[in-house]
Design brief:
The chain has twelve helices and six strands. The chain is mainly alpha-helical and 315 residues long. The chain folds into three domains: 115 residues, no CATH class; 36 residues; 131 residues, Four Helix Bundle (Hemerythrin (Met), subunit A) (Up-down Bundle).
């Protein structure tokens, strides 16, 4: 019997059953849940070379965002709030995990001008992310020489050791290890007593957020050339076939993904959540990652699955 997505109770989200699908070689995992905040970009002044209409729209958006900041932080120090939010920059795009809410809280502290709590929060969140990675992935590396050093521990405060473990496990995207170590140095200088900290609170907090943002963008982001994503798929990311069993991908990305073919569609539910729409069977095509990307780029808009198509013709 030919098994298809239509036979699965949760369809493209029935991750434990996808290996048995008849058309699995024509499908890839497409992550669809993410978090970001581009508010700071709206607070910047318009560029002189912009078209007048574009300037006007930007200024209107800026005024709207300032009013929102006034509601959240009050009007007494609104110019400082605007400066802090602008200097902080956009919150990096990230898949949904344990860090998103805490990242938002730490950023709000900086925008409010409470720099030391913001600094400590950014450093602490970096350590929390580092710990989660080791603890969440260690059971996938039981044969590793490091496993006996980490399997009984509940937390790790030795950042260089944790980074070396994750590096040996090939669990980190390019550059993430160096960002962790730089944030760890800042954490040690800021959390342990150092009189110089009083003179550089805002500067150090900004530096901490820059490193934290880089860690999240590179490791948990969607558009940073992460090794587990197929290249050249504008507007979307798909997991490479060879990375489907990678511990980081299996733990963090696939649970937030739909298993789709190149003609999938998306639908916004009444609850405000995006869900996938797709054909039940793509046949016996065996698509390489490059072929999948090509079909995605060149897909016929009239064949992309929509709710109207499903109701009219089925799949």
């Amino acid at each position: 019997m030919r098994k298809t997505i239509a036979d699965l109770a949760r369809g493209v989200y029935e991750h434990n059953e996808h290996a048995n699908l008849a058309d699995r070689k024509a499908r890839r995992y497409h992550p669809y849940s993410f978090d970001f905040d581009s508010t700071p970009l709206s607070l910047e002044s318009p560029e002189e070379h912009w078209d007048e209409q574009v300037k006007q729209v930007h200024l209107e958006n800026r005024e709207h965002q300032i009013k929102r900041l006034e509601l959240e932080y009050g009007t007494l120090r609104i110019e400082d709030v605007i400066r802090n939010a602008t200097d902080l920059g956009a919150k990096s795009m990230s898949l949904l995990a344990y860090h998103n809410r805490l990242h938002t809280q730490a950023r709000r502290a900086f925008v409010a001008g409470v720099y030391y709590p913001a600094l400590v929060a950014a450093c602490a969140l970096g350590e929390r992310i580092l710990n989660h990675l080791v603890l969440d992935l260690r059971d996938s590396f039981k044969s590793s020489e490091h496993y006996k050093k980490v399997y009984r521990k509940d937390s790790f405060d030795n950042w260089p050791f944790a980074v070396s473990v994750l590096t040996d496990w090939k669990a980190l995207a390019d550059g993430v290890g160096a960002d962790f170590l730089a944030l760890g140095d800042l954490r040690n200088r800021s959390v342990h007593f150092s009189p110089e900290t009083y003179q550089s609170l805002r500067q150090d907090a900004l530096a901490a957020f820059e490193r934290l943002n880089a860690i999240i963008a590179k490791q948990f982001g969607y558009f940073g050339l992460q090794p587990w994503f197929i290249e050249d798929t504008p507007g979307a990311q798909f997991v490479r076939r060879t990375y489907e069993d990678h511990p980081f991908v299996r733990t963090y990305i696939i649970p937030l993904s739909g298993f789709v073919g190149p003609l999938y569609g998306m639908e916004l539910s009444q609850q405000g959540l995006w869900t996938h729409l797709d054909y039940s069977d793509y046949g016996d095509d065996e698509l390489s990652d490059a072929e999948f990307a090509k079909r995605y780029r060149e897909r016929d808009p009239t064949k992309i699955v929509s709710r109207e198509m499903i109701e009219k013709h089925g799949r």
